[in-house]
Amino acid sequence: MVKVIQTQSLSMEWCLDCHRNPGLHVRPAGVSVTQMDWKPAKTDFQPLGQGPNDVPVAQAPVTPAGRKVNPPLHCSGCHR
Amino acid sequence: MSKRLPVVQGRDLSGKTYWRSLAEREGTLSSDVLAREFPEGAAEVTENEAGIGRRGFMGIMGASMALASLAGCRRPEDHIVPYAKPPEEIVPGIPLQFATSVQLYGTAIGLLVESHEGRPTKIEGNPKHPECPGGGSTTFLQGLLLDMYDPDRSISPREKGTVKTWDDAAAALKALGDKLKAEGGKGLAIVTDQHRSPTLKAALAELKVAMPAAKFVRYEAFDRTSAHEGARIAFGKPLEAVYELGKAKVIVAVDSDFLMNEGSPVKASRQFAEARSVHGVARVWAIESAFTVTGGNADHRLRTKSANVGAVVSAVAKELGVTDAANLKGTLDDKANKFVKALAKDLAANKGHSVLVAGNNQPPAVHAAVAAINAALENVGKTVSYLPLFDDAPEGPKALVELAKQIGSGVTTLLILGGNPAYDAPADAGFAKAMAGATTIHVGVHYDETAAASTWHLNRAHFLEGFSDLASEDGTLSLVQPLIAPLYDGRTDAEVVHLLLGTKKRAYDLVRETWKPVLGEADFEKKWRRVLHDGVLVRTADTTILPEGPKVDGAAVAKAGNEWVAPSGAYEITLNVDAHAYDGRFANNGWLAELPDPMTKLTWGNAAWLSKATAAKLGVVDGELLNLTVGGATVSVPVTVAPGQAEDSIAVTLGLGRRQSGRVGTKLGWDCYPLFSSATGKVVAGNAAKGGPGLGGEHSYLARTQEHFLMEGRPIIREANVATFKADPKFAEKMSDPHPALEALWYPFPYQGHKWGMVTDLQSCTGCNACMIACQAENNVPLVGIRGVQKSREMHWLRMDRYFEGDQADPKSITMPMTCQQCENAPCEQVCPVGATVHSPEGLNDMAYNRCIGTRYCANNCPYKVRRFNFFNYTKDTPATVQMAMNPEVSVRARGVMEKCSWCVQRVNRAKIDAKKSYPDGRVRDGEIVTACQQACPTGAITFGDLNDPKSKVAALANDPRNYVLLEELNIRPRLSYLAKVTNPHPDLGDASAKAVGEHAAAGAGSHAPAAGSHVPSHPAGKEEHK
Q1: Top-tier CATH class for B225-388
Q2: CATH class name, domain B158-222+395-534
Q3: How many angstroms away from the CA of B418 is the closest CA of chain A?
Q4: ipTM score of the complex?
Q5: Per-residue pLDDT tens for A15-65?
Q6: Minimal C-alpha gap between A73 and chain B (Å)
Q7: Is B970 at the interface with chain A, CB within 8 A?
Q8: Residues in CB range of B290: below 8 A, 6 or more apart
């Protein structure tokens, strides 16, 4: 019998793990979208710099199209 | 333990006294009220109160049609249905906008309606439409959306109350139509509302051809019949007065509420704001009995009986030398004479740049006199134009009474297309009774009083559900396109007419047939799609407007003036548009029921407006019943003492007290239609006598929002006259005590990205409340019911604070919209124990509803009192159709959660997402984010944008010299700032000289507690100059 299992926590913390450090999770330009088994190199939160008032900020990665990936970190980014 | 009264640090130095209610003005507010922030019981949820409140509330909002049948199960069962074959252009989650239009106020206004997944969720104005410059709207235009989703709508045709199908109805109509055709239409009468649809006009014309003996009457309780008749007297044929206020330097409202309920309010408001811009503040005069929104925006207001307005107009005409208009009789006291002289002087000095607007309640003789004055002042063709009427069928109360008399003899078949004459016809028509004498077919959106008395009731398609077209007052043609398929298989009026004719045609085809000659056969499809997209076909040239205007027949005007007799009696009673129901059509609309009346701030009901002296004379106080008698009819209405009401004049509103409306409208308020007769019109003479002690229970006192939120000596409203502004443009800053340099406890945050800010211009704000209901529609703000409003628990995120200033009986009024000020050092954020409200890096004060546990400490700490708490689960029993009306982009809040204005963060975020996709730098451009209140505001008073963008409109306004911030001395640094108001009093009547403002000493010494006499400004404090 096929069972359904939950592999990701789907909690807010799980969302923010990527939002806080999107560079780890954005697929690099060379890797094809159809490669289903690509995993990010690291999954731990790694602050790369210090923003104003000592808030750690990740460096925004850039998509192949040249867009900066800057997901919201403030409450109203998702909670409206 | 007694609470200390508040200590005011930054006091108001303008010298004016502002008050919210008469009790505050007289100093009779109990110390209890003064000491408490909120009224007694506001924060308590007692068992009994909750029981009554909720039961009563559920009675109002309870659904009889629930989606799921799993009562008692906490998790509703829903089905997810994927778009296997998606409709074109729909991306789930991305809304679309469609252009349409609607007929209201006697004109047609273009709309843009936002549609989510195929259902309309928000109405906005269409900036391309000439009746809607800037894309603003009004309270009724916003409320129209909820009407479509009204759970009490009529869902099927009915024959004498029995539910039937449309096939049955069509067969019956065809049979009836064939019979009528055979007799040439003998006995057929058609009553329409004041429709402006060329397609319906064409259908009715076809009907007239097939049934030549048919009679037609156009009727609405509030329409322009009197104005048309006045134009007929003045010009020989009835004409539509269309105003262009933008270039006027003197605007005179002759018992006209053109900013709110008459004419074309959106256009008039925008033009009004243009005329009032601080670069040339047009002077506004008002002559009226009840305090209206327009009167509230006037520099000078003459408080006089509506029956006396004609005499005032004649006095002005006499001063100006327009003798034909100088015949209307009445008495003027010294104050009125002084007013007349100053007004005449002002008008004479501004020929060609002035305009007099006569109100629809005034008799034709007054309209004729005003037309004569406008012509003599060379205003015609500049600020006022007279255009042909849309339709020449008999119209108005007299025509309807004529028709009603013939029912049973000359009229045996009655077709009522829209409207509710059994409820709102004049009392002397006896329409409800008379209807029994004929076969009646009623087409309506609700199963209302008229439907209940009809032989056949057919459910009508709401304007958002069917195709039609409209012509506005200046002749602009627009299309009405449906946003959704008819929820209950309703049909449009034109389709019903064709069913009667025996031809079955769709509204879509009928409209295209009408538009073929308009757009021309060549390239028709392309042009048709263009008009569907734009919503409007803008007029190019109009050969019917004569450049010099029609000629005034002075003799006819003089004759009408001589023949007119003012109604005389102990008291005058004026019958006015109701801010909640208009003429009764919106009685079942919950949003409009809870939206406060702009001047009395009354919700959930209507009242009789009396001046304090008149109330004292009659021996009645606020809330007590008053018996009003006109002719043989008596109604009992509760009293509200209204500052600014003329003596011995009682204003009531028509539209509530319905007998058959729905869960909100039935038995809400008091029906005053018995006082309305075609012989006497809307300004009647009658008797008033003290009635009972008032109804008990939840109606024990009137539910007003105004009593709360006092100013307490702080400089909230700041205004000055033009001379002061010119002498010192920065007068607003100086109207508060200087304070020492402000320092915060926290490091300031560098807002490097977007820095959202908003500026509200008090000069433009008229207080119409359109922003309040737009916010409610956009943000799913719940209703709380009458008990909730009585406890100051109304949920409106945006409130319109209306302050009176000056003399108790004859004050001035000024309004200020108040939302969350999005403070940088927000007091609410500092006290939330769970961090549910935090600051975004762009300056918004975010509210995370799921984190909130309901301590209400944030509301306690907010000095502006803009936070709203969900005391009950207001949205638990929302009917299924009303759920469809809600905006899916905003969470619907449950019980126990605090909410407040978010500056439409859903719109901000959508614009940011779009900007990331569209622009390389990913920054939102100025003007792309329009908050709901900003978009709805007809005058454009609210501006939102990025303060970090040096070229943005809001950055320019934030640096405007008139700019000030509320409660600056608290150092909470609100992002919302206001622009002070500049008035333009006439030197003969008011203080028009430049005044020194505020402290003379600079703030360097830092002392903010000056010695007793040194802070008195150079003008006498607190006295009303023009008395």
Answers
A1: alpha beta
A2: alpha beta
A3: 40
A4: 0.85
A5: 988 888 787 777 777 788 888 888 876 655 555 555 555 655 556 677 777
A6: 9
A7: no
A8: B306, B574, B576, B599, B609, B642, B644, B645, B646, B649, B651
